[in-house]
Protein: TIR domain-containing protein
Amino acid sequence: MNRNVLEYLEPSSFNGLYLLRRLSMSRNNLHLVTSYPSEVFKPLSNLSELDISRNMKDDSKSNISYKLPVNELVHIQELSIDLVAQPHFGKHFRELKYLQKIRFEFCHVRYLHNNSFIDMPDTITELHMSTCNSFLVMETDVLRPFLNIKTLNLTNSNIHLTQGLRILYPLEHKSMDNILFRKITHFVAARDLGSVTLTSNDMKYISTICIKTLDLSNNEIVSIENQSLITFKYPECFENLLMSGNRFAMNNFASNFFILLLKMKNVKLFDYSYIPLRFSDPVYLNVYTKDNNQSLVEEREEGGVVDVIDVIMLPSQIEYFRTTHIMGINGIKKIVLFMSRLRHLEISYIDTFIFPEISLVGNNNIQYLDISGISSVITVGKFPVLIHLKTLIMKESKLYEVLRTTKTIFKWFPNIRTLDISYNFILNIPNDGLGELRLLKHLNLSHNMLKSVPEVLISFESLIELDLSYNLLTTLQKSIRDWIDKQYKKHGTFQVYLDKNSFICSCDTKDFILWLSEYEVILDQKGNYTCWTPISNGRTNYTGNIIDEFQDYFVKCGDTLWLKIGSSLLGSLIFIIICVTFVYNLRRRIIFWFYRTLRRMQEKAINVNFEYDVYVSYSDDGTQFVKKLTDTMENCGLKICCEDRDFLAGESIADERARSIHLSRNIIFLVTPSIVLNEWSRFEIERAKFEKLSKELQKIIVITKDISLDEIPVEFATIWNQVNLIVWPNEEEEIAISWKKLLIWLF
Structure:
């Protein structure tokens, strides 16, 4: 009965419901003191779960007694309730002899005394207090009533990690299933609480506890003193260890930590990711134990010096190993898996030039492998044959560099079912580029630069899902369409993603448009894509509209074929006559023009030598964008000249700018708000104008970012008719299109 604006319950509200096992009245207006009359729960003699959370809307400072008659719930096992600012539970709570789990999901409390939970029964094994947004002060002995607790979940509460570790004092030398302390550290200026430096004193209680699952993710841990993180007395108890989203690196104790990890001989999951910077969109792992069944789910929340470790050995029981988005990680040369049960291996987005060689001794159970964000050049040859691997993720791995050599890197993964090689700037795939993936079912080629669908896909007879979105396709060739239809008939299903391509609706592609109208396969956007229509003077339209007016668009394509041939022949004859006449009458001028042009070409070949493909002009507030611009273009093989990186030290700034622009084939002006304060921008505009007039400079590209066109310096007006303009967008889809447009202009 959630969300029903309930304010009061009559004593007879639940009469006759003696078989009811679960009751939820969350998100109403039921007050703990006035809404629950005596004997209201008495008919519910078999109730085992009650949820009356998120009812106390006001942040009351007064002392509130929990007068609801919970003692009538003789078999209650799980209770979800609000925690008010100054709670007083009462002795009737002690009568809940079967209560095992209590959840405080709406938390107004700011101070918990040692006696705050003194009336709780000692049967409680799980305490969840996960939404205390105001800073919560807890006395050291507050958990004394819960000596039989197995799960302590304080996730997202504003408690601060140092305090959370201190309240574990009553639980010393006990065994626990879960200690979940994710994101309990928030900045509290009034108490001078911010980032965490773990010390031996902080860890003295938790290090004595036998813990199965420990989650310390996202807690602003910036440093570890005296290797206090590796002082656990019972490492063999660990089954899941999660430390992602902090800001400490393992440089000083990495070797000892991996020795400790090996001692965790029963650990099944290890997660050390999103470190040491605060990433914008981290994905945390949830390990939650309920009814003795363990499940793993994902929860999404809004190059320096490398110390090299020769070899590490992972525990044989580990099943899930993730280390992703790491900067300054210790370099590891080799990872040894001995009789391992590892099934999920994720080593991705690591800023390193060393990728470990994976050595398997005995069992080979790896089913999921993610090596995204690392150059495929350094991952080639680092794996044995993984015959059980089903999923391979290689996003943003510069795969185009390996595909250029026609060397397939997938021969180590012959039986994969899912392959994701998106975001790799792939222009084409050689016939032997992907190997023989006879079991491949799902292939993601999105966010690449494919102008046509690679014919090698036809050899993948098991494929049932293909993502070709965000490429440069103008059509699907007939061989690919026939293959897709064949796959659909063979498997009874086939999904194709084609959104955000460069489709053309013309006579040459009418068969593709007609195929879209008759498709049986599953298409994204319901088969309705944007396309350029030369028949309508180059306007953009949707394939759905073109299909609806198919006859109007394409009726003349077939009937006028011979007329076009005749017209072409006649036009060619007339053109030849005109050309011959023109050449004969102007033969001396033409000879002189060829002579002059040939001389200029010879002089240019001797005197002009481009050193850079692109010179980038920018101001201080464009530095971050230029870094990304430079990385993107250099990854595509272009040579870039930037002031902060490429100017010669000790030379005149003006001379260096003039020389660099003269030696560049193209120039990009990044126009940002601070350009009006940059005195060198005007110099570079004038120099670009000079080079353009002297016919040395090929393209002038202007990228405006966070500035309106009215604010662009007037100096651009003199070259505006020679400028290629990009107004840099904010939406991700439009940004991807802008990147492709820029690269096409420069090639």
User: Anything to note?
Assistant: Residues 292-305 have pLDDT under 50 and may be disordered. Residues 561-605 form one domain. Residues 563 and 569 are 10 Å apart (CA to CA). The two ends are 63 Å apart (CA to CA).
